[in-house]
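Bumping with the actual sequence this time:
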Amino acid sequence: MINVVRSLVFYAGYFFAMLISGVLFLPIAPFLPLSGRYRLLNLYNHFLMVWFRVACGVRYDIQGRHLIPDGPCVIQANHQCEWETVFLQVMKPPVCTVLKKELLRIPIFGWALRLLRPISLDRSKPARALKQVLTQGVARLGTGLSVLIFPEGTRVDPGVRKRYNKSGSVVACRAGVPVLPVAHNAGERWPGRHWVKQPGVLRVRIGAPIETHGRTPDEVVAEVEGWIESQLQEISEVPRPLKR
């Protein structure tokens, strides 16, 4: 019962903060340069990080921040819930996120996303979506933005394993930038398919940048998957399945 109450309190703050951001920040953001726009709108993500910890009894164990490169990179992480999309925005700003275009239609949240120049994809047209990721991803990296791509392509529940897509590694290889791997167990604290949050330790492991020069995308994505899965074996409370 206590987790239900905590979750209700959390969502009250969640939506209140979204409303305040929409009223105070959205009217100003379009008139700012991208860097200033990002700093302003990212205040909401900083608040959620703190509010989730306080309201839901979660402790963060984040290791490897010192390994984050100064320059642009392609961030690849396992995808379990909404929490990592928030964390990865504050981990290395500014970052361009590859996401499904439906998210841009959500009031306030989607409007703010549009202002941050994401790469929005139509999943009903996979060939076109892949081309879009490759061309726009390389272009964004060329402007100094990092790019966030979830190699699993969609949310995957803890204890479930999905084949990694190599599009992020292709972008990194073409742009000549490193891949920054990130592993976490956020779905055990913030379930992707249920609104009730769970207290406990939320663990994040940030890996050393994986170089792409002189390597093929297949080699890079294999190293990314191997590293993330090895970390999940250590930090997950739900047993990991073997690779199919």
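The tokens above came from a reply further down the thread. The CA atoms of residues 86 and 194 lie 18 Å apart.
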